[in-house]
Write a structure and sequence with these properties.
By secondary structure, the chain is mainly alpha-helical. About 50% of the residues lie in helices and about 10% in strands. It has helices at about 5-15, 50-70, 80-100, 155-205; strands spanning about 115, 120-125, 130-135, 140-145. The radius of gyration is 25 Å and the shape is flat. The termini are far apart. The structure holds zinc ion (ZN). Zinc ion binds near residues 37, 38, 50, 92 and 96.
Length: about 200
């Protein structure tokens, strides 16, 4: 899965579920934790940070750091930010499994990793309906990641689609929020006018 999908798909899900977590737009930058596991490729040991040995301590450290920063009053809402960052770290493994992996969850104990693949093919012109689906919809793939330094795809169409989806949801929500803000301030003015009207009525009597 490409860089943009790992960045923006988890952000889109988190923002759609709990937009209030991003009241401070700075928390959007936490999306970079969705790339944490791929840093094992820098050292030529793919899989090292895709295992529980790498991900569990990292996510515990992020949650702990968030709590400490919050308790000391250094950063508001740091507890939420720590949990969000940990969630983004885990999202990487989920996306990689969905994308075929292999994700070696138990490395370095076991080098083999797992992933899902989708072998089903639509066959046109097949009897009797002229259309058939051949092969299983989902299959489990168990292989070891290729060791050493390798070349990987950087950006693909799904990444671009993830960016566009995030932009549509984020900008749409923000513009609705600002419309509501304007509407409620208009209502406030009406309310004030009504109050003045009442006072005027009272004065006439
Ligand atoms: Zn990965």
């Amino acid at each position: 899965m490409d860089v943009l999908t790992h960045l923006f798909l988890p952000l889109t899900v988190a923002f759609a579920v709990r937009p209030e977590w991003f009241d401070s737009p700075a928390w959007l930058a936490l999306g970079v934790f969705g790339l944490f596991s791929d840093f094992d490729k820098f050292v030529g040991a793919p899989g090292l940070l895709h295992s529980l040995v790498g991900v569990v301590p990292m996510s515990l450290a992020l949650v702990g750091l968030g709590r400490v920063l919050d308790r000391r009053g250094w950063i508001d809402d740091a507890t939420t930010a720590g949990r969000l960052a940990a969630g983004f770290v885990w999202s990487h493994l989920l996306l990689d499994v969905i994308d075929g992996g292999p994700v070696p969850l138990l490395a370095p104990l076991f080098r083999t990793g797992l992933g899902l693949e989708y072998p089903a093919r639509v066959v046109f012109g097949a009897e009797p309906l002229g259309l058939a689906v051949s092969g299983p919809l989902v299959a489990l793939r168990i292989v070891a990641p290729r060791p050493g330094f390798n070349a990987y795809g950087f950006i693909n169409g799904f990444g671009i689609a993830s960016v566009l989806t995030f932009a549509a949801i984020y900008l749409g929500r923000r513009s609705r929020a600002s419309d509501n803000g304007i509407a409620s301030s208009d209502n406030g003015n009406e309310f004030q006018d009504d109050e003045l009207g009442c006072r005027d009525d009272g004065g006439d009597r």
